[in-house]
Amino acid sequence: xxxxxxxxxxxxxxxxxxxxxxxxxxxxxxxxxxxxxxxxxxxxxxxxxxxxxxxxxxxxxxxxxxxxxxxxxxxxxxxxxxxxxxxxxxxxxxxxxxxxxxxxxxxxxxxxxxxxxxxxxxxxxxxxxxxxxxxxxxxxxxxxxxxxxxxxxxxxxxxxxxxxxxxxxxxxxxxxxxxxxxxxxxxxxxxxxxxxxxxxxxxxxxxxxxxxxxxxxxxxxxxxxxxxxxxxxxxxxxxxxxxxxxxxxxxxxxxxxxxxxxxxxxxxxxxxxxxxxxxxxxxxxxxxxxxxxxxxxxxxxxxxxxxxxxxxxxxxxxxxxxxxxxxxxxxxxx
Length: 334
Ligand code: TYM
Description:
334 residues; Rossmann fold; 5 strands; 54% helix; binds ligand 1
């Protein structure tokens, strides 16, 4: 609890360009949670280097992502928006938690298996212990809730296991976090293969809508989206392509799948795809415009980076000092 409010933590990687999946699955929900919780939203740049990055590019993307958080509607006075690398507590707690995490647990992580297969030439130890750093992010702020997409649930589960294990040894040190999946627990799929999630790292640019795509590009990608053979707009397992488009349409318009089925009853895929494209374009337009204004205001963004890193550091240190004492590190002498 901070000032009588429950604490919320979440983060995104500054790797690749953000997709509609990141927005509808995470960022859009975050904005609605700001009043209810004391929120920490991090640009998790430490996680990004588990895959080889171009330094200048990473710096640029990290800043763009931080700016995008604000453009999406997160008020940086109310929400602590900061770079993970600016708060050394993340790395320090991560080390300690590594010593309370089993190899067997990490071996089961599906994201590790996927990424290891994708980056076979660079299966580094950081990629393996990635979930421990994620646990440190969350536990450092004593977060009660963690809004994430479905793909991160396994990491939330291991975070809870690590925290419970630590608490069982040392007493009530960590708050046990709950995942927050949003209303639908939505998982946006690739436009080219609805069996896969829409991902920043997809090599096929037509598979993903990027948040900075212009209207024409968005509509073109939806027109090309892989659909099914029934030729009717029905929300069912047999039509995973159409189902994904209905999810996207509903997330942007606030309609339900049933309302959408009715709206497009008797119409073909073409009309529906066009409507989805337009709904997405108008959802993203205000965000793109606000982003365009914010990037020009360097001093404003710099101020936020400075102030929020201080705030995050304050809360992080509180937990870290407690943990260090519990595990038996000598106290600092002033
Ligand atoms: P990342 O950067 O891959 O994704 C950021 C958020 O977007 C969600 N997401 C999706 N939701 C629905 N459909 C999709 N296609 C889709 N793709 C991505 C993710 O679930 C996530 O919520 N390890 C995390 C970042 C992280 C973190 C944390 C999150 C680091 N520390 C602590 C929460 C708490 C990641 O790589 O997310």
